[in-house]
Amino acid sequence: MDLKKIGKFIAENRKKVGLSQESLAEKLDVSNRSVSKWERGICLPETAKMPELCRLFDITINDLFSGEIVDMKNNDKKLNENLLALAKEKEQKDKQLLTLEWVLGFLGLAAFLAMVFMCIPIADSNTPPAVAMFIVGFIIFMIAAFFALKIEQIAGYYQCAKCGHKHVPTFGAVFVAMHFGHTRHLRCPKCGKKSWQKKVL
Ligand SMILES: [Zn+2]
Questions:
Q1: Alpha carbon of 174 to ligand 1 centroid (Å)
Q2: Which of 62, 17, 14 is nearest to 39 (CA)?
Q3: pLDDT tens digits for 162-199?
Q4: 93 phi and psi, to 5 degrees?
Q5: Is residue 184 within 8 Å of residue 177, measured between CB atoms?
Q6: Measured in angstroms, how far is the CA atom of residue 196 from the centroid of ligand 1?
Q7: Residue ranges of the domains in the chain?
Q8: What are the phi and psi torsion angles at 183 (to 5°)?
Q9: 3-70: what fold?
Q10: In this predicted structure, what is the pLDDT of residue 143?
Q11: 167 C-alpha to ligand 1 centroid (Å)
C-alpha cells in the first residue's frame, strides 16, 4: 500500500470537490491535522471515516486503497493486491505488539524485583516503608502484566491443535489459561476440545 500515492489522491479529490483541508476535516469530524497527515502519506484515514470520505469524493474503497481510480478491467486484480497488503500490515502490527508484550512483561518484572531487593534490607528496621515499596512494586507488576496479557489476547489468533480453527479468545479465557510463552491451554470454540493452542499471526 503506497501511502504517499493515497495521500496525493486524497488531496486531488478534495480539491476536485472544492473543499479545503479544514472543511473536509469538519465534514468528517476529524482534526485538520488528521487530514494533513493523510495527504502527506503519514497514515491512512481511520476505517470508520473511509465510507464517508469515499462518498464525498464519489470513489470506491478500492480506489482509495489504490490511490487512483481503478477501471473495471483491473478491479479484481487491484482488490486482491489491496487485501493482501492489508493482511500483511496486520501481521506486521501483530508482530510488533507481541514484541511490546515481552518488553512490558520484562519491565514490570524488573520493577517488581527492584522494589523487592530495595525493601529487603530495610524490612526489619523500617517495616511500613518496606511493605509500601513491596506493594507499589507488586501493583506496577500487575499493571504491566494486565497490559501484556491484553496485547496477547488481541494480537493475532490462537490455533486449535485439534481442528486447526483460529480464534480470538476472551480476555477472561486468556487470563485463567495455563501457558508456556505464547502457547496457551484453551478451549476451541469450533470443536469444543481443549488443547495447547499456539499463537499464530
Ligand atoms: Zn478445534
A1: 16
A2: 14
A3: 999 999 999 999 989 998 888 999 999 999 999 999 99
A4: -60, -45
A5: yes
A6: 11
A7: 3-70, 90-200
A8: -90, 125
A9: 434 Repressor (Amino-terminal Domain) (1.10.260)
A10: 92
A11: 9
